[in-house]
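User: Mind token order:
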Amino acid sequence: MSVQARRLAVFCAHLNPTRLPPDPPALFLSPSLCAPHSEAENRTLQDDCVFCNIIRGQLPSLKLYEDDTCLCILDTSPLSHGHSLIIPKSHFPSLDATPPSVVAAMFSKVPFISNAIMKATGCSSFNLLVNNGAAAGQVIYHTHVHIIPRKAYDCLWASESLLRRRVNLDDEKVSQLAARIQKQLLPSDMSQESKNENFCSCKS
């Protein structure tokens, strides 16, 4: 299957209502709970975004958790029993475009939500996954974090049964890579002298 076909299949799976129970329980999202409470909040959502429509209550989904910043729902195309998504209530296309305060709010709920999911599914482990960008497999461009419950020998990822091939870099290339990353982490308005001082302190 081509990359384009796979992305389309995953996207359609998020929209497919046939995977949902015929009689929605009380945990289903409703406009009264998830719809924006003001015009300003509404402007942060996108009309053509699946998750924004779920937040508005225009698409059904099974809700596990909700607060003022984010909500957690069951994935409609799960990789394992209990596969869930934490999504912010405002629209941000990718993790790197999401404000740190929102990222912090989302990830601070991971221990609480993941523990509940593992107890409910009988799993002892989970993967925490973010597909950020097309090359990383992102299909829906609204920031979301996957919680994927795991059991021993479930063979969920084919790569886990294979020997992983590490990237071999010599010490000089590793040092050059570290220097390039450190440079990108420095504020753009810092003087060159300050940058050099910070770089030297990082190496020591």
